[in-house]
Protein backbone atom coordinates (compact mmCIF):
# COMPACT_ATOMS: atom_id res chain seq x y z
CA UNK A 1 0.00 0.00 0.00
CA UNK A 2 1.13 3.43 -0.79
CA UNK A 3 1.69 5.65 2.17
CA UNK A 4 4.13 7.48 -0.02
CA UNK A 5 1.42 9.09 -2.06
CA UNK A 6 0.21 10.74 1.09
CA UNK A 7 3.57 12.13 1.95
CA UNK A 8 3.98 14.29 -1.08
CA UNK A 9 1.73 16.18 -3.40
CA UNK A 10 3.75 18.60 -5.50
CA UNK A 11 4.63 17.42 -8.98
CA UNK A 12 8.19 16.17 -9.21
CA UNK A 13 9.32 18.88 -11.57
CA UNK A 14 8.13 21.60 -9.22
CA UNK A 15 9.60 19.79 -6.25
CA UNK A 16 13.01 19.52 -7.85
CA UNK A 17 13.00 23.22 -8.66
CA UNK A 18 12.04 24.06 -5.09
CA UNK A 19 14.77 25.66 -3.04
CA UNK A 20 13.81 23.64 -0.04
CA UNK A 21 15.00 20.49 -1.76
CA UNK A 22 18.44 19.12 -1.32
CA UNK A 23 19.29 16.60 -3.99
CA UNK A 24 21.80 14.47 -2.20
CA UNK A 25 22.79 12.37 -5.14
CA UNK A 26 23.72 13.28 -8.67
CA UNK A 27 20.98 13.04 -11.26
CA UNK A 28 21.81 10.25 -13.65
CA UNK A 29 20.30 9.23 -16.95
CA UNK A 30 16.62 10.11 -17.16
CA UNK A 31 15.82 6.68 -18.56
CA UNK A 32 16.72 3.39 -17.01
CA UNK A 33 16.10 0.16 -18.86
CA UNK A 34 15.23 -2.87 -16.80
CA UNK A 35 17.32 -5.89 -17.70
CA UNK A 36 16.04 -9.41 -17.87
CA UNK A 37 18.31 -10.94 -15.24
CA UNK A 38 17.07 -13.71 -13.04
CA UNK A 39 15.61 -12.00 -10.03
CA UNK A 40 15.25 -14.98 -7.73
CA UNK A 41 18.68 -14.99 -6.19
CA UNK A 42 19.31 -17.57 -3.50
CA UNK A 43 22.96 -16.63 -3.01
CA UNK A 44 22.36 -13.46 -1.01
CA UNK A 45 23.62 -13.13 2.56
CA UNK A 46 21.33 -10.28 3.61
CA UNK A 47 18.12 -11.73 4.99
CA UNK A 48 19.76 -14.89 6.34
CA UNK A 49 19.51 -15.69 10.05
CA UNK A 50 22.53 -16.28 12.27
CA UNK A 51 21.78 -19.99 12.22
CA UNK A 52 21.68 -20.05 8.42
CA UNK A 53 24.95 -18.14 8.25
CA UNK A 54 26.53 -20.62 10.66
CA UNK A 55 25.35 -23.49 8.48
CA UNK A 56 26.74 -21.77 5.38
CA UNK A 57 30.10 -21.39 7.11
CA UNK A 58 30.13 -25.08 7.99
CA UNK A 59 29.17 -25.98 4.42
CA UNK A 60 32.18 -24.01 3.20
CA UNK A 61 34.53 -25.81 5.56
CA UNK A 62 34.70 -23.08 8.22
CA UNK A 63 33.87 -23.27 11.90
CA UNK A 64 30.39 -22.14 12.89
CA UNK A 65 31.61 -19.03 14.72
CA UNK A 66 32.41 -17.59 11.31
CA UNK A 67 28.64 -17.46 10.81
CA UNK A 68 28.34 -15.24 13.88
CA UNK A 69 31.01 -12.99 12.42
CA UNK A 70 29.15 -12.85 9.12
CA UNK A 71 25.99 -11.90 10.99
CA UNK A 72 27.81 -9.12 12.83
CA UNK A 73 29.39 -7.78 9.63
CA UNK A 74 26.10 -7.74 7.70
CA UNK A 75 23.68 -6.45 10.34
CA UNK A 76 25.82 -4.49 12.84
CA UNK A 77 28.69 -3.18 10.77
CA UNK A 78 26.48 -3.11 7.64
CA UNK A 79 29.38 -4.02 5.34
CA UNK A 80 28.21 -4.18 1.72
CA UNK A 81 30.94 -6.16 -0.05
CA UNK A 82 32.30 -9.61 0.76
CA UNK A 83 35.85 -8.47 0.06
CA UNK A 84 35.42 -5.82 2.79
CA UNK A 85 34.79 -8.48 5.44
CA UNK A 86 38.26 -7.83 6.84
CA UNK A 87 37.63 -9.90 10.00
CA UNK A 88 37.33 -13.01 7.87
CA UNK A 89 40.20 -14.97 6.31
CA UNK A 90 40.86 -14.08 2.68
CA UNK A 91 40.33 -17.72 1.68
CA UNK A 92 36.80 -17.72 3.16
CA UNK A 93 35.94 -14.47 1.39
CA UNK A 94 37.19 -15.97 -1.88
CA UNK A 95 35.17 -19.14 -1.33
CA UNK A 96 32.03 -17.09 -0.78
CA UNK A 97 32.59 -15.10 -3.93
CA UNK A 98 33.52 -18.10 -6.03
CA UNK A 99 30.37 -19.81 -4.78
CA UNK A 100 28.36 -16.92 -6.25
CA UNK A 101 27.50 -15.29 -2.92
CA UNK A 102 27.01 -11.56 -2.48
CA UNK A 103 25.86 -9.39 0.39
CA UNK A 104 22.79 -8.14 -1.47
CA UNK A 105 22.96 -4.40 -0.95
CA UNK A 106 21.95 -2.22 -3.90
CA UNK A 107 22.98 1.30 -4.80
CA UNK A 108 20.95 4.41 -4.16
CA UNK A 109 20.04 5.82 -7.56
CA UNK A 110 18.42 9.06 -6.46
CA UNK A 111 17.51 10.73 -3.20
CA UNK A 112 15.36 13.74 -2.49
CA UNK A 113 15.13 15.50 0.85
CA UNK A 114 12.20 17.68 1.85
CA UNK A 115 12.37 20.75 4.09
CA UNK A 116 10.83 18.78 6.96
CA UNK A 117 13.60 16.17 6.76
CA UNK A 118 11.61 13.44 5.02
CA UNK A 119 13.88 11.61 2.57
CA UNK A 120 12.69 9.65 -0.44
CA UNK A 121 15.15 7.20 -1.99
CA UNK A 122 15.13 5.40 -5.30
CA UNK A 123 17.01 2.13 -4.95
CA UNK A 124 18.37 0.46 -8.09
CA UNK A 125 17.99 -3.30 -7.89
CA UNK A 126 20.24 -5.92 -9.49
CA UNK A 127 17.99 -6.07 -12.58
CA UNK A 128 18.03 -2.26 -12.94
CA UNK A 129 14.50 -1.85 -11.66
CA UNK A 130 13.82 0.97 -9.25
CA UNK A 131 11.88 0.95 -6.01
CA UNK A 132 11.02 3.81 -3.70
CA UNK A 133 11.52 3.91 0.03
CA UNK A 134 10.96 6.79 2.42
CA UNK A 135 12.51 7.78 5.73
CA UNK A 136 10.32 9.91 7.98
CA UNK A 137 11.99 11.44 11.05
CA UNK A 138 9.80 12.68 13.89
CA UNK A 139 11.16 14.48 16.90
CA UNK A 140 8.86 14.82 19.89
CA UNK A 141 8.79 17.69 22.37
CA UNK A 142 9.95 15.39 25.15
CA UNK A 143 13.17 14.68 23.27
CA UNK A 144 12.27 11.27 21.88
CA UNK A 145 13.08 10.56 18.24
CA UNK A 146 11.32 8.24 15.83
CA UNK A 147 12.58 7.26 12.41
CA UNK A 148 10.05 5.41 10.28
CA UNK A 149 11.01 3.54 7.13
CA UNK A 150 8.15 3.18 4.65
CA UNK A 151 9.18 0.20 2.53
CA UNK A 152 8.05 -1.22 -0.81
CA UNK A 153 7.19 -4.88 -1.22
CA UNK A 154 6.83 -5.06 -5.02
CA UNK A 155 8.27 -3.36 -8.08
CA UNK A 156 5.13 -1.44 -9.01
CA UNK A 157 1.72 -2.77 -8.09
CA UNK A 158 -0.92 -4.75 -10.01
CA UNK A 159 -3.93 -3.49 -8.04
CA UNK A 160 -4.39 -0.10 -9.70
CA UNK A 161 -6.21 1.81 -7.00
CA UNK A 162 -7.69 4.82 -8.74
CA UNK A 163 -5.86 7.48 -6.70
CA UNK A 164 -2.40 5.87 -6.68
CA UNK A 165 0.56 6.71 -8.93
CA UNK A 166 2.23 3.37 -8.23
CA UNK A 167 -0.81 1.52 -9.54
CA UNK A 168 -0.78 3.67 -12.68
CA UNK A 169 2.90 2.79 -13.32
CA UNK A 170 2.26 -0.93 -13.78
CA UNK A 171 3.71 -3.96 -12.07
CA UNK A 172 6.86 -5.91 -12.66
CA UNK A 173 7.69 -8.36 -9.92
CA UNK A 174 7.79 -9.16 -6.22
CA UNK A 175 10.73 -8.06 -4.12
CA UNK A 176 12.87 -10.68 -2.45
CA UNK A 177 13.38 -10.55 1.30
CA UNK A 178 16.79 -8.89 1.10
CA UNK A 179 15.41 -6.22 -1.25
CA UNK A 180 12.92 -5.29 1.47
CA UNK A 181 15.45 -5.41 4.33
CA UNK A 182 18.00 -3.35 2.45
CA UNK A 183 15.53 -0.46 2.20
CA UNK A 184 15.59 -0.17 5.99
CA UNK A 185 19.40 -0.33 6.08
CA UNK A 186 19.58 2.36 3.37
CA UNK A 187 17.40 4.67 5.47
CA UNK A 188 19.63 4.04 8.51
CA UNK A 189 22.67 4.85 6.42
CA UNK A 190 21.22 8.12 5.13
CA UNK A 191 20.05 9.30 8.56
CA UNK A 192 22.95 7.76 10.50
CA UNK A 193 20.28 6.66 12.99
CA UNK A 194 18.55 3.44 13.84
CA UNK A 195 15.17 2.95 12.19
CA UNK A 196 12.60 2.64 14.99
CA UNK A 197 9.45 1.86 12.95
CA UNK A 198 8.77 0.08 9.68
CA UNK A 199 5.57 0.38 7.67
CA UNK A 200 4.90 -1.79 4.63
CA UNK A 201 3.10 1.03 2.86
CA UNK A 202 5.40 1.76 -0.05
CA UNK A 203 5.05 0.44 -3.59
CA UNK A 204 3.10 -2.76 -3.94
CA UNK A 205 0.58 -4.89 -2.10
CA UNK A 206 2.41 -6.80 0.69
CA UNK A 207 -0.19 -9.59 0.78
CA UNK A 208 0.64 -10.49 -2.82
CA UNK A 209 4.22 -11.10 -1.69
CA UNK A 210 3.50 -12.54 1.72
CA UNK A 211 6.34 -15.09 1.75
CA UNK A 212 9.05 -12.45 1.27
CA UNK A 213 7.24 -9.99 3.55
CA UNK A 214 7.16 -12.55 6.38
CA UNK A 215 10.82 -13.45 5.81
CA UNK A 216 11.79 -9.77 5.78
CA UNK A 217 9.69 -9.20 8.91
CA UNK A 218 11.61 -11.98 10.69
CA UNK A 219 14.93 -10.51 9.64
CA UNK A 220 13.97 -6.94 10.61
CA UNK A 221 12.81 -8.17 14.00
CA UNK A 222 15.51 -10.72 14.87
CA UNK A 223 18.56 -9.50 12.95
CA UNK A 224 18.04 -5.74 12.55
CA UNK A 225 16.33 -5.74 15.97
CA UNK A 226 13.22 -3.69 15.32
CA UNK A 227 10.40 -4.62 17.70
CA UNK A 228 7.46 -6.45 16.16
CA UNK A 229 5.10 -3.85 17.60
CA UNK A 230 6.99 -1.20 15.67
CA UNK A 231 6.16 -2.89 12.34
CA UNK A 232 2.93 -2.33 10.40
CA UNK A 233 1.81 -4.42 7.44
CA UNK A 234 -0.69 -2.66 5.23
CA UNK A 235 -3.05 -4.19 2.70
CA UNK A 236 -5.87 -3.15 0.44
CA UNK A 237 -7.23 -6.66 0.98
CA UNK A 238 -6.36 -9.87 -0.86
CA UNK A 239 -8.66 -12.88 -0.30
CA UNK A 240 -7.39 -15.61 2.04
CA UNK A 241 -4.28 -13.72 3.12
CA UNK A 242 -5.43 -12.04 6.36
CA UNK A 243 -6.15 -15.45 7.84
CA UNK A 244 -2.74 -16.63 6.70
CA UNK A 245 -1.05 -13.59 8.24
CA UNK A 246 -2.93 -14.19 11.49
CA UNK A 247 -1.54 -17.73 11.62
CA UNK A 248 1.98 -16.31 12.12
CA UNK A 249 0.71 -14.61 15.30
CA UNK A 250 2.90 -11.59 14.78
CA UNK A 251 2.71 -8.79 17.30
CA UNK A 252 2.61 -6.29 14.46
CA UNK A 253 -0.22 -4.04 13.32
CA UNK A 254 -2.39 -4.94 10.35
CA UNK A 255 -3.56 -1.85 8.49
CA UNK A 256 -6.38 -2.33 6.00
CA UNK A 257 -6.90 0.34 3.37
CA UNK A 258 -10.67 0.70 3.38
CA UNK A 259 -11.29 4.09 1.71
CA UNK A 260 -15.08 3.60 1.64
CA UNK A 261 -17.84 2.56 4.04
CA UNK A 262 -19.70 0.38 1.53
CA UNK A 263 -18.92 -2.10 -1.22
CA UNK A 264 -20.34 -0.07 -4.10
CA UNK A 265 -18.25 3.02 -3.41
CA UNK A 266 -15.19 0.96 -2.53
CA UNK A 267 -15.22 -0.77 -5.91
CA UNK A 268 -14.96 2.59 -7.66
CA UNK A 269 -11.86 3.53 -5.64
CA UNK A 270 -10.21 0.11 -5.27
CA UNK A 271 -10.95 -2.01 -8.38
CA UNK A 272 -9.61 -5.18 -6.74
CA UNK A 273 -12.41 -4.87 -4.14
CA UNK A 274 -14.66 -6.68 -6.66
CA UNK A 275 -12.84 -9.87 -5.71
CA UNK A 276 -13.16 -9.38 -1.96
CA UNK A 277 -16.51 -8.13 -0.63
CA UNK A 278 -16.41 -5.70 2.28
CA UNK A 279 -18.26 -8.09 4.61
CA UNK A 280 -15.63 -10.77 3.95
CA UNK A 281 -12.81 -8.32 4.74
CA UNK A 282 -14.53 -7.22 7.95
CA UNK A 283 -15.02 -10.84 9.03
CA UNK A 284 -11.35 -11.62 8.36
CA UNK A 285 -10.30 -8.51 10.33
CA UNK A 286 -12.47 -9.56 13.27
CA UNK A 287 -10.89 -13.02 13.17
CA UNK A 288 -7.43 -11.43 12.97
CA UNK A 289 -8.14 -9.45 16.15
CA UNK A 290 -9.50 -12.52 17.93
CA UNK A 291 -6.49 -14.59 16.86
CA UNK A 292 -3.72 -12.08 17.61
CA UNK A 293 -5.30 -9.59 20.07
CA UNK A 294 -3.80 -6.90 17.87
CA UNK A 295 -6.05 -4.00 16.98
CA UNK A 296 -6.65 -3.59 13.22
CA UNK A 297 -6.12 -0.13 11.82
CA UNK A 298 -8.30 1.04 8.94
CA UNK A 299 -6.73 3.51 6.55
CA UNK A 300 -9.24 5.84 4.94
CA UNK A 301 -8.04 8.23 2.26
CA UNK A 302 -10.39 11.20 2.13
CA UNK A 303 -11.14 12.22 -1.46
CA UNK A 304 -13.02 15.50 -1.78
CA UNK A 305 -16.61 15.00 -2.87
CA UNK A 306 -16.16 11.23 -3.20
CA UNK A 307 -16.02 9.64 0.25
CA UNK A 308 -15.54 12.54 2.68
CA UNK A 309 -19.13 13.45 3.63
CA UNK A 310 -20.41 13.17 7.19
CA UNK A 311 -22.89 10.56 5.90
CA UNK A 312 -19.91 8.41 4.89
CA UNK A 313 -18.45 8.79 8.39
CA UNK A 314 -21.75 7.73 9.94
CA UNK A 315 -21.93 4.70 7.64
CA UNK A 316 -18.31 3.84 8.49
CA UNK A 317 -19.02 4.03 12.24
CA UNK A 318 -22.02 1.72 11.78
CA UNK A 319 -19.90 -0.75 9.82
CA UNK A 320 -17.20 -0.83 12.50
CA UNK A 321 -19.69 -1.23 15.34
CA UNK A 322 -21.34 -4.08 13.46
CA UNK A 323 -18.07 -5.98 13.40
CA UNK A 324 -17.07 -5.42 17.00
CA UNK A 325 -14.21 -3.82 18.95
CA UNK A 326 -10.52 -3.68 18.16
CA UNK A 327 -10.45 -1.09 15.42
CA UNK A 328 -8.84 2.26 14.81
CA UNK A 329 -9.42 4.61 11.87
CA UNK A 330 -6.57 6.57 10.37
CA UNK A 331 -7.82 9.38 8.12
CA UNK A 332 -5.53 10.47 5.31
CA UNK A 333 -6.45 13.67 3.48
CA UNK A 334 -5.56 12.95 -0.15
CA UNK A 335 -2.60 14.72 -1.69
CA UNK A 336 -3.32 15.16 -5.38
CA UNK A 337 -1.03 13.40 -7.83
CA UNK A 338 -0.32 14.65 -11.31
CA UNK A 339 -3.16 13.78 -13.68
CA UNK A 340 -5.44 12.64 -10.87
CA UNK A 341 -9.16 13.31 -11.02
CA UNK A 342 -9.31 13.49 -7.21
CA UNK A 343 -8.93 16.53 -4.98
CA UNK A 344 -7.74 17.06 -1.43
CA UNK A 345 -10.65 17.76 0.95
CA UNK A 346 -10.87 21.01 2.91
CA UNK A 347 -9.66 20.85 6.52
CA UNK A 348 -13.20 21.63 7.61
CA UNK A 349 -14.46 18.47 5.89
CA UNK A 350 -11.67 16.40 7.46
CA UNK A 351 -12.52 17.71 10.93
CA UNK A 352 -16.24 17.09 10.41
CA UNK A 353 -15.53 13.52 9.28
CA UNK A 354 -13.27 12.85 12.27
CA UNK A 355 -15.78 14.46 14.63
CA UNK A 356 -18.62 12.27 13.33
CA UNK A 357 -16.54 9.15 14.02
CA UNK A 358 -15.43 10.31 17.47
CA UNK A 359 -18.96 11.18 18.52
CA UNK A 360 -19.87 7.59 17.66
CA UNK A 361 -17.04 6.28 19.84
CA UNK A 362 -14.72 5.24 17.02
CA UNK A 363 -11.06 5.95 17.79
CA UNK A 364 -9.64 8.06 15.00
CA UNK A 365 -6.47 9.90 14.05
CA UNK A 366 -5.71 12.20 11.14
CA UNK A 367 -2.39 11.50 9.49
CA UNK A 368 -0.03 14.40 9.44
CA UNK A 369 1.12 15.14 5.90
CA UNK A 370 4.90 14.87 5.63
CA UNK A 371 7.36 15.64 2.90
CA UNK A 372 5.01 17.63 0.70
CA UNK A 373 7.93 18.99 -1.24
CA UNK A 374 10.04 15.84 -1.29
CA UNK A 375 8.78 14.82 -4.72
CA UNK A 376 5.57 13.73 -6.26
CA UNK A 377 3.38 10.92 -5.00
CA UNK A 378 4.29 7.30 -4.46
CA UNK A 379 5.46 5.84 -7.72
CA UNK A 380 5.95 9.13 -9.52
CA UNK A 381 9.62 9.49 -8.62
CA UNK A 382 10.19 5.95 -9.86
CA UNK A 383 8.11 6.58 -13.00
CA UNK A 384 10.21 9.64 -13.82
CA UNK A 385 13.36 7.55 -14.09
CA UNK A 386 12.02 4.21 -15.27
CA UNK A 387 10.21 5.29 -18.38
CA UNK A 388 9.84 1.87 -19.97
CA UNK A 389 6.44 0.54 -18.85
CA UNK A 390 6.69 -2.26 -16.36
CA UNK A 391 5.89 -5.70 -17.72
CA UNK A 392 4.38 -8.21 -15.39
CA UNK A 393 4.99 -11.90 -15.43
CA UNK A 394 1.32 -12.82 -15.50
CA UNK A 395 1.95 -16.47 -14.61
CA UNK A 396 4.00 -15.44 -11.62
CA UNK A 397 1.36 -12.96 -10.55
CA UNK A 398 -1.60 -15.28 -11.02
CA UNK A 399 0.08 -18.00 -9.02
CA UNK A 400 0.13 -15.68 -6.00
CA UNK A 401 -3.53 -14.95 -6.18
CA UNK A 402 -6.36 -17.16 -5.13
CA UNK A 403 -8.76 -15.20 -7.28
CA UNK A 404 -8.28 -13.19 -10.45
CA UNK A 405 -7.49 -9.54 -10.04
CA UNK A 406 -10.57 -7.59 -10.93
CA UNK A 407 -9.07 -4.51 -12.42
S1 LIG B 1 -2.31 0.49 -6.36
FE1 LIG B 1 -1.10 -0.86 -5.03
S2 LIG B 1 0.43 0.49 -4.07
FE2 LIG B 1 -1.21 1.80 -4.88
S3 LIG B 1 -2.64 2.09 -3.17
FE3 LIG B 1 -3.41 0.34 -4.38
S4 LIG B 1 -2.50 -1.49 -3.38
FE4 LIG B 1 -1.33 0.33 -2.65
TrEMBL record:
Signal sequence extent: none
Biological process, per Gene Ontology: rRNA base methylation; tRNA methylation
Molecular function terms from GO: 4 iron, 4 sulfur cluster binding; metal ion binding; RNA methyltransferase activity
Gene3D superfamilies linked: 1.10.150.530, Aldolase class I
InterPro entries assigned: Aldolase_TIM (IPR013785), Elp3/MiaA/NifB-like_rSAM (IPR006638), Methyltransferase_A (IPR040072), RlmN_N (IPR048641), RNA_MTrfase_RlmN (IPR027492), rRNA_lsu_MTrfase_RlmN/Cfr (IPR004383), rSAM (IPR007197), rSAM_sf (IPR058240)
Keywords, sorted A to Z: 4Fe-4S, Cytoplasm, Disulfide bond, Iron, Iron-sulfur, Metal-binding, Methyltransferase, rRNA processing, S-adenosyl-L-methionine, Transferase, tRNA processing
Domain called Radical SAM core: residue spans: 143-373
Cofactor: [4Fe-4S] cluster
Keyword rRNA processing: yes
SMART domains xrefs: Elp3
PANTHER family to which the protein is assigned, alphabetical: 23S RRNA METHYLTRANSFERASE (PTHR30544), RADICAL SAM CORE DOMAIN-CONTAINING PROTEIN (PTHR30544:SF5)
Name of protein: Radical SAM core domain-containing protein
Natural source organism: Vitis vinifera (Grape)
Amino acid sequence: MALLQHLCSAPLTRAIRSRSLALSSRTMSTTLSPTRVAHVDSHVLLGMSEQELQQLSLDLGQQSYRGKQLHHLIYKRKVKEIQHFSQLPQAFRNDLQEGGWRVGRSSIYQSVTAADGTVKLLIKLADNRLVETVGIPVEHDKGSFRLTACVSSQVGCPLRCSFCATGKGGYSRNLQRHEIVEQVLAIEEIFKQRVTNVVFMGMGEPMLNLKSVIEAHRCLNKDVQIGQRMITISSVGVPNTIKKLASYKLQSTLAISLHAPNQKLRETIVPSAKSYPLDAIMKDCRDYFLETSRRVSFEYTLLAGVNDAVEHAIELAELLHEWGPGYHVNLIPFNPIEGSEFQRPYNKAVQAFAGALESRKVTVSVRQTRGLDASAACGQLRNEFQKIPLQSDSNNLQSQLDVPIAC
